[in-house]
Every structure is written in C-alpha cells, then in structure tokens.
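Troubleshooting entry. Yesterday's outputs looked truncated, so today I'm pasting the complete records for two proteins to confirm everything comes through intact. If either block looks cut off, that's the bug. Protein one:
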Amino acid sequence: MSTLLLQFQFMYKIEKNSEELIGQANEAEIKLMLINRFKREHESTDFFDILPDSEIWRLLSWWRDIDSVDLQTIVENAVANKVENVIKLIKVFTPTITSFGGTAPRTFKSGFDAKNYASMTEIIDIGFAYEILKASGYIREKYDLSAIPNRDALTDTQLANIFMQFFEKGISDRDSIPAASVPDIESNS
C-alpha cells in the first residue's frame, strides 16, 4: 500500500466510524476520495502545491484509471498555458534527490529519463505541454537522451529541452516521420 494510502487510512476510518483496517476492497473508494479531496483543495490552492511531486504522480495515475478525461481537463487547466506550469508538470515526473554532502542538505530534480517520460505519457496526453514550450521560443539545447544525469541537478531549461526532445523523438518513432521532418534542435540554438 502506498504512503499516500497509508496517510489517509486513518481519515477513512474516522469518516466511516470504523476501527477496521482498510483492505483492497476499499482501495478504489479511498483513491476516489483522495482525488475528490485534491480537486476541492485545488479550488483554493495551486495544483502543484497541494502535495509533494511524487504523491501528485501517484494520484494522477489513480485518476487516469478512474476518469482520464476529467484528469486531462484538470491538468490542462492547471497548466493554464504557462511555461512555468509545464515545467512544474515535468517536475512531477522527475525524481527528487536530496544530497547531504557539504554544510547543508540540498534538494533538486534529476534523472528525467525515458522511463519517467513514458510514465508521463501513459498518464496524460502531453501534446498540449509540448506546444506551450514550443510556442514560448525556448532556447534549444541538444542532450544525449541515453545519458541523462541521475545525480546532478537539472535546471528548468534542461528539463524543458529533454522533455521536448523525448516528445519529438516519440513523434518520429511513433509516426515513422523521417528524422529530417522533426525540428532540428541545433538550428534553434
């Protein structure tokens, strides 16, 4: 059972006025309850500030299984055609690393790789996010997608560029578009 489910286990027990532990039969009901609470909280709080990124990722995957159309609408509305919100969305699917070397702990995002990108595409239709970044005129940098660092901090610009490259590669792979018709990243530098 996930951390998020465990955290809300006690709330569920109180709401149902029961001492019974939550079983798998109740998991779907709990997931739906968490999604509804998240949606209510989103009415007064920024979508990306309600829960830590890893818990938002988990919630989005449950939401997709329950109502993918509603999920897509909510995510697109939360992004609101803003580049900074697209970056926040990408960060949801990017591991958070905390380094304890040096004088103080340092937390950063690192390791947005093909696996994380694939998870993102399985949960939401990301075409809208790519279009927002593309229209923004982001300065393009080329990255070796097979060698993305998983212990070094990635900047917002690096995350955006890696995401865009994965998207463009996916279009090229999925639709058999010749590589020449995929935007040339180096010519935009």
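Protein two, checking that the full record survives here as well:
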Amino acid sequence: MVKSNLQIWGIDFPIGGEWDAKATPPHVPREQAGRVTVRRESQRFVVIFARFHTQPGEQEIKEFPPTEQGEIDAKTFALTFDFANFKAA
C-alpha cells in the first residue's frame, strides 16, 4: 500500500520535493536507461521519466492534482509504470 507523506511523516509533501519510484532494469540500452520520479509542484504532482545518459533529460509522463490523494495516485502510477511500452521523445 502506498502512503502519503502526511501519513508517514505527519507533514504534506513539500513543494519541490521528489520521490524516486524506480529505475530501468539492468542491461537496458544506454539511451533508454533512466528513472521514474514523482515531483511536487505548486499546482500538481507530476510523474517524470529522467534519462541517465541522453538528452532531453526529463520527460513528463502524467500529472495529478496537488492533493493527498493526488500524491498517492501519482506514486501508485509511478510504481506500476511500464518501461517496455514507453517511447521517450
């Protein structure tokens, strides 16, 4: 079960804060290697794919409302994100 920052620490997820969900599996081609991160911005939570070795460095995947439930939904989405079907721009 995914928990919010408020449930774990008793405070809201900080604006500008990031939560790394997972990284690509070992031995993927260098140009596809990266990680999925949830970032809290003032008006949203955004799930991004950040490449390790190629440009552009980050690509937005999906956004969620700036609520506690939006945080939980963003984290859940990030954890279940399927690298195999993702075509980075």
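Both blocks look complete. Sanity check on protein two: The mean pLDDT is 88.
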